[in-house]
Amino acid sequence: MKRRLVLKMMRRMKSRLTPVVALAAWLFILTSVAATSAHAAGSWTEGTVANAAGTRNYKLWMPAGYDARKAAPLVLMLHGCLQTPDDFAAGARMNEVADRYTFLVVYAEQPATANPYKCWNWFDPAHQARGAGEPSLLAAVMADVRAKHKVDAQHVYAVGVSAGGAMASVMGAAYPDLFAGLGVCAGVEYKAATSVAAALAAQQSGGAEPNGQGTLAYQTIVAATPLATPPRRRAATATRARPMRVIVFHGTLDTVVRPVNGDQVITQWAQTNDLLDDARDNNSVDDKPDNTSDGEVPNGHKFTRYVYHDAAGKTLLEKWLIRDMKHAWSGGAAAGSYTDPQGVNASEEIWRFFRPTTTTATPAKSSPARTPRRSRR
Ligand SMILES: [Ca+2]
Ligand SMILES: [Ca+2]
């Protein structure tokens, strides 16, 4: 299509320009066509959403190999205070993972007009609920991306660092119909605070009692996901909401958001998932790790990884404590602010944790083998 257009332009040019100028133009057009077609890397697009709560811009990473006809998973990335989408993208390097595994990454931008430090207002009751404030704007971002691109609705996740991580916790409870999982890096539990003073206190010594916050998040989820599509194979007493998969990263030397907050994120979501799985507070999911392992990044930090199972023994929650890491996104590049390249590569681990698996689907290979067997009868 593009080449045909170029030829058409050339034909027109030839009739008008001198041969030398025409040749120069021809070469210029040819090289630019070659440059664009040779580049298979992902690319940015931008968008803006608006509703009664205001306006927000976003940047969307279209991964290399993205096929507009095929539904792709989508990850919402929420930056921390003083950051921008570009800064966060450069630091976290999630786009590189997206290029490898072909998923969309959308970076919502919190402007200084909304918060002088560009923090998501996770601690303000005006921005903690479905259909209001910043959560509604973030939901609008997701809706805009989904309207313009083919998204695999079953595989949409919210990931954030610091204030962005705190907002990811809010989004998981307020919009459980949108998100199947959360990545909380140096963040806090759901509604850890409901004022600026409480936010500062929570960052230092933890937020509201996390088991209670887990129950609160469950009640919020139930309110957000009534009846519409009852899940298959679930007890009549349960809600239709899915379990929320959550992965946490926290540095042991984080003095901005102390590590107790990472523990609270796990306790809170363990309780929420305990209630979600059978509508009973029977510790079918709890915050005691089922698996603990130590490791070390080559030339980097040591870490401990805690894995928490659901009632069926499958991984539901994970927590990575990064030894000697301060307030930062674990891993990534120094090109972005608030990163610690010596930490575990959080982007890689988050996608490993979220990555859709095909264990429940019938592998494509087995279909032809079955068909002849059936036809013999
Ligand atoms: Ca339970
Ligand atoms: Ca419980």
Quickly list its features.
two-stranded parallel sheet; Rossmann fold; binds calcium ion; alpha/beta; 38% helix; 377 residues
Description:
With 377 residues, the protein is α/β, with parallel strands linked by helices. The chain has one domain: Rossmann fold (3-Layer(aba) Sandwich), CATH 3.40.50.1820. It has eleven helices and twelve strands. It has a ten-stranded mixed beta sheet with strand order 1-2-4-3-5-6-7-10-9-8, sandwiched between helices. Helix 6 links the parallel strand 5 and strand 6. The C terminus is likely disordered. Bound molecules: calcium ion (2 copies). One calcium ion binds next to helix 9.
Describe the structure concisely for a colleague:
This protein is α/β, with parallel strands linked by helices and 377 residues long. The chain has helices spanning 2-16, 19-38, 85-92, 94-101, 133-148, 163-174, 196-205, 210-224, 260-278, 346-354, 366-376; strands at 43-51, 54-62, 72-78, 104-108, 151-161, 181-185, 245-251, 291-296, 302-309, 315-322, 329-330, 339-340. One calcium ion (CA) is lined by residues 274-275, 277-278, 280, 282, 284.
